[in-house]
Task: structure prediction
Amino acid sequence: MFHIYCPHCCEYREEEEFHAAGQSHIARPLDPDACTDKEWGEFMYFRANPRGIHHELWVHAAGCRKYFNVTRDTQTYEINEVYKVGEQPTVVANAIQSK
Amino acid sequence: MSDVTVAESKLVTKQLPEADIVGESPLHHADLASVSQHGPKEGGVYFHERKLQGLLTLRCVPSAEQLSQIESLLGAALPMEPLTSVTTDAVSIRWISPDEWLIIVAGEQAFDLETRFYESMTGHYSLVNISGGTTIFDVSGSQVVNMLKKSTPVDLHPREFPVGKVVSTVFAKSGVTICRLEDDKYELVVRRSFADYLWLWIQDASREYGLVVKA
Result:
């Protein structure tokens, strides 16, 4: 079981209370009508599937029902960082590799 | 945001039935009154359904002005710190999320409070009466923590869960909002549709400690 820190409740809770909601930092095109089918299709359906550091959106479904971002290693399941929506991650893939 | 006008008391639906209609709680069928009369009087876990309370969900990102309006309406300030609550004789306020609070008053006062909110509060907010969809279980007793430990993954150690703390979490296969009222007394705000299931669950989980129903 994960022990996940909720940045809104400000404490660790069991994984059972959370749901993963896919990749984070996906910006919706500002003018969807101006998108080509390829651009729109990539926004709608195409997601990164990295091995290693991944930025994900999680929701505290049974708790405060707020979304937040998690930086997680898909290989080790280690959660490197938790940060609120609108913030930028400090742990990114290249930084880990250069360690 | 302040240009949103919330007007007219017609937004408020009076959910109270006429005086000659008897309210039935979600556990009406369990007939807790006679269970409490004929059942055991001593045990490790005490169960009481605080039925037909008035519950309101307030959602807003309060401005300083709204905070003072809310304080004068409720007679208590909103708990702004995560997982905290305020309990007075007249009203209980529970922090649910950074922009959401649960307000609990006596059943007949909910409509009145709602009306006063719409009359006097300004700015952008939402107030919804959820009394019909919820009920409250008060569980207490020397073994109550052991019963809760079987039901929820939340850490109930006094160091982690002091009196007054509120958490929304999973409970059995359902969800509840737990508030610690006293050292060995907890309030569970449960969904109406899960009330019977959770009542059965609590009976089962309390069996080894002895369950006492209080009317």
Q: What stands out?
A: The two ends of chain B are 46 Å apart (CA to CA). Chain B touches chain A through 13 residues (CB under 8 Å).
